[in-house]
Design goal:
Elements: H1 8-19, H2 22-37, E1 41-45, H3 47-53, E2 61-66, H4 69-80, E3 83-87, E4 92-96, E5 103-107, E6 109-112, E7 121-124, H5 127-132, E8 142-144, E9 153-154, H6 159-165, E10 167-168, H7 175-178, H8 181-193, E11 196-197, H9 199-210, H10 219-230, H11 235-244, H12 247-251, H13 274-287, H14 293-302, H15 307-327, H16 332-339, H17 344-351, H18 360-371, H19 382-387, H20 394-408, H21 415-429
Parallel strand pairs: 2-5, 10-11
Antiparallel strand pairs: 1-2, 1-8, 3-4, 4-5, 6-7, 8-9
Helix pairs in contact: 2-4, 8-10, 8-11, 10-13, 13-15, 13-17, 14-15, 15-17, 15-18, 17-18, 20-21
The structure holds cytidine-5'-triphosphate.
């Protein structure tokens, strides 16, 4: 990570130019000119500013329009070929194109929370209102993009000082009560950026958790934050923090992460897609429920996980329970039968857990199943039995299952061996 320059304001314009892909920069410039012609201003806000000052890659872009964001964004979508998604009630919209960062535009707004955990009431505001409604000081800076003031930094909450101090600090004391999902965000940014959570902010997290703030938010919103965390390269450390702060047990008493940062990582983490990483950590969370695999269903249901992730978590719990059996002396057919009913994505996710490699025998057997055993299929099937004149019935299933066993064990390598095996079984059965 780079040093924050002494005079941020003087360097911001050139830093942004260097950070943004040139076609995105041009796109925003045309939006800015358009806005200025209407007497409006546009500002780059939040993550892009934080990350470009830290020398990190661009993720998504957030833009606040003091004026009418929807009008600007429609014009941009027409001229750029980006796809437009509009979320009407808050005057927010996203421009998307595969392979490009998302560009989120919002009409600058003021927010108030009718009750803790509820979605906010929104009204139009100026850029200072728009920064004041945000979570942490490092996310509450803006830089003007409109030509008249291009490159001018607004930092009313001392975000630059906190970037230098490498600190995640909440803007106001009610913030975690208003929006408890910010607890997850504090942990996420701190670990992702290698920052610490400022002392009072940490106290407010602990207090909000103690006071049950998490019970005021819908499980969908909580699960969304957890899923975002599981996609992060330092997800293990984030889960550790969530566990330490009492967040995981507040969500469900059986959810836990007893592993210190660095103990449980994904193998070759840097090569994984965010989804593969998410599945790996979800599998570990599931495996923690190994002693009570049926509870994994309850936990997955409680978290309102989509069906594929729920299955993954449940089957990871089952695998966690049968893991010791895999270490014992086992035939290929036993291994096959232990694992055949389980979700392949759960098995793959499990195989990526680096720490399990030290459990060499079990791990090698899991990989044997994934790479080889599960793909084994006899060449002949019911048609062949029929051609021999066998009468359809349970015998078909029995013989074909015995054939599969022989194939998995490597006893019938060729088609001729398979045919001979089946003929003998049918004769024995007569
Ligand atoms: N924000 C907030 N409270 C939330 C969610 C978002 O205050 N619960 C504000 C923050 O200012 C944040 C901005 O909205 O920076 C954009 O949200 P998001 O895209 O989630 O944050 P980024 O900082 O862009 O995070 P990332 O780097 O993960 O994309």
């Amino acid at each position: 990570m780079t040093q924050i320059p002494e005079d941020v304001n003087a360097q911001l314009a050139s830093k942004l130019k260097a950070t943004l892909p040139s076609h995105i920069f041009d796109l925003l410039t045309s939006a800015a000119v358009q806005a200025e012609n209407q007497g409006w201003q546009i500002y780059l806000v939040a993550g892009i500013l934080r990350d470009s000052l830290l020398g990190l890659d661009v993720r998504d872009l957030d833009i606040s329009v003091v004026g009418n964001a929807l009008q600007i964004v429609e014009e941009l979508a027409r001229s750029s070929g980006f796809e437009l998604e509009v979320f009407g009630q808050f005057g927010t919209a996203t421009l998307k194109r595969p392979g490009e960062p998302d560009i989120d535009l919002v009409t600058a707004r003021k927010e108030s929370y009718p009750q803790p955990g509820a979605l906010p009431i929104v009204e139009a505001g100026d850029i200072y209102d728009d920064l004041a409604r945000r979570d942490f000081s490092v996310n509450a800076m803006a830089v003007q993009f409109t030509p008249g003031g291009f490159g001018m930094l607004l930092d009313p909450h001392d975000g630059i000082a906190d970037l230098r101090a490498r600190s995640i600090r909440l803007l106001h004391n009610q913030s975690f009560r208003d929006d408890p999902t910010r607890i997850f965000r504090a942990v996420k940014f701190a670990r992702r950026l290698g920052f610490s959570i400022e002392k009072q902010t940490l106290e407010l997290i602990l207090q909000a958790v103690r006071d049950g703030a998490l019970y005021t938010v819908s499980m969908d919103r909580i699960t969304r934050e957890i899923m975002l965390i599981l996609e992060e390269p330092r997800a293990d450390a984030m889960l550790w923090d969530l566990d330490r702060f009492g967040v995981l047990t507040s969500i469900h008493p059986l959810l836990s992460w007893p592993y210190e940062p660095g103990k449980i990582r994904s193998y070759q983490d840097e090569l994984l897609t965010p989804e593969e990483r998410r599945d790996t950590y979800l599998a570990v969370l599931g495996a923690e429920l190994g002693p009570e695999p049926d509870e994994a269903d309850n936990v997955a249901h409680w978290l309102s996980l989509p069906a594929p992730q729920a299955k993954l978590m449940r089957d990871a719990a089952r695998l966690g329970k049968l893991w010791p059996q895999l270490s014992e002396e086992q035939s290929r057919w036993r291994i096959y039968n232990l694992l055949r009913e389980l979700d392949v994505r759960a098995l793959e996710a499990y195989a990526r857990i680096e720490a399990l490699r030290s459990d060499k025998t079990a791990w090698e057997r899991l990989v044997l199943f994934l790479d080889t055993l599960r793909h084994i299929k006899p060449e002949i099937g019911g048609d062949y039995l029929e051609s021999l004149g066998a009468r359809p019935g349970p015998i078909y299933g029995e013989v074909l299952e015995q054939l599969l066993e022989a194939k998995v064990e490597g006893n019938v390598p060729t088609r001729a061996d398979e045919e001979k095996f089946v003929r003998e079984k049918l004769t024995q059965g007569e």
